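Justification of computing resources. Each target in the renewal requires a structure prediction run like the one illustrated here; the chain below, 103 residues long, is used simply to show the kind of job we budget for.
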Amino acid sequence: MEKRPMKRSNSREEKERDNGKDKGKGKDARPRRTLRTPRIQIELPEVIDYKDIALLKKVLTDRGKLMPRRFTGISARNQRLISLAIKRARFLGLLSSGSAKRK
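Resulting structure tokens:
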């Protein structure tokens, strides 16, 4: 068996030809993310209160679960405040802990 020397290509033309497949985006190019538009746009008051049942019901599903941020378009901080307000309202009995049954 003959050992053949490995062919190394150091020429700039060959490297450019190989990189031409990426169309100039670079070696580690990743696809860009598209911005999501929220499905429901909810306007929040300045102060999120557990006594504002109408607001809290807008963010809950029919089963009593908190809707995700990507649906409501609420910031992370406000989502945490709403979560806290829902827990307080449930503890006081202003909101039910869950309503619909599975079929």
